[in-house]
Amino acid sequence: MSFKSSDSDYTPTWQRLTSNNSTICRLTFKIPEDMGPPVYMYYRLTNFYQNHRRYVKSLDVDQLKGKPLDNNTIGSSSCDPLRLDPSGKAYYPCGLIANSLFNDTINSPEWLNGDGDSAEPYVMSNKNIAWDSDKQLIKKTQYTPDQVVPPPNWRERYPNGYADGIPNLNEDEEFMVWMRTAALPTFSKLSRRNDTVKMSAGIYRLDIVDRFPVTEYSGTKSILLSTRTVVGGQNPFMGIAYVVVGGICVLLGALFTLAHLIRPRKLGDHTYLTWNSEQESTAVATGRDDRFGSHAP
């Protein structure tokens, strides 16, 4: 996180805790100035290639639209290699994108009072974080629980399969956000938001249930807090891109100017036209030669 001003006397800390066989990462950080509203919380991943060709196409749009596709249809779909389980049942949702869903549980930050013993939650919601187009695409499934099984990486969340009911992905906006693949290996995805209450300056504590592995692919994960102004949120990528493209244009302009000064060329000079600079040739005559006059008796 970055701010206009910072407190050099305070250093953010983190702890690794254990609760109910789960690993919890506890972050403690300071916000030197009020933020928002609105306030947005993102998770950022590095070295995760959602833009890989095989990964991007590993989903079935009709299945996401709620259609109860039979096993033969899923077996020949683009969800490879996660189409059917060993028993022949279809995965729902199928494909690599859904199976790799970011599954860390991010709780709302808590503002710590001066005594450090009590905390006041700053409530953030996971509603209205997905695009409207994604909400219109992903519908409630028409499968029955006995027809499908969870993807392999969803087994912890659904240890008994879908015996207790199939999740309604039409209401799972975190799933929708994840399914919209990123173009670059380092990306941020919206996880929580608060549109009505400012985040007051002070020290905060944030607990995250750590489930999503990053060491396997030499990546990292982090949390970002941001707000928005009348010109939008912070996006340094576009600024950097504009500066780079502008610099290239300036360099090319300087090179063309130098070339013009060294070897100038008159604009509209007819001597450069092809028919004014033709060389004598032994080739066949062109359409501009006087064919009939040259062979007149």
Task: Give an overview in words.
Helices cover 21% and strands 22% of the residues. The chain is of the alpha+beta class and 297 residues long. The chain has one domain (13-241). Strand 1 and strand 2 form a beta hairpin.
Keywords:
297 residues, alpha+beta
Topology, number of strands:
12
> Count of helical segments?
8
Classification by helices and strands = alpha+beta
Supply Rg.
31 Å
Q: Which percent range fits the helix content?
A: 10-25%
Poorly predicted runs of 5 or more residues: 1-5
Strand residue percentage:
15-25%
Family: Belongs to the CDC50/LEM3 family.
Subcellular location: Membrane
GO cellular component, one term: endoplasmic reticulum
Pfam family, one: CDC50
How do the strands and helices of this protein lay out in sequence?
Elements: E1 13-19, E2 22-31, E3 39-46, H1 53-56, H2 61-64, H3 71-75, E4 90-91, H4 96-99, E5 105-106, E6 110-112, E7 119-121, H5 132-137, E8 148-149, H6 173-179, E9 187-194, E10 202-209, E11 220-229, E12 232-233, H7 236-262, H8 291-294
Parallel strand pairs: 4-8
Antiparallel strand pairs: 1-2, 2-10, 3-9, 3-11, 5-10, 6-7, 6-10, 11-12
How would you sum up this structure in a few lines?
The protein has 297 residues and is of the alpha+beta class. It is built from eight helices and twelve strands. The longest helix has 27 residues, at 236-262.
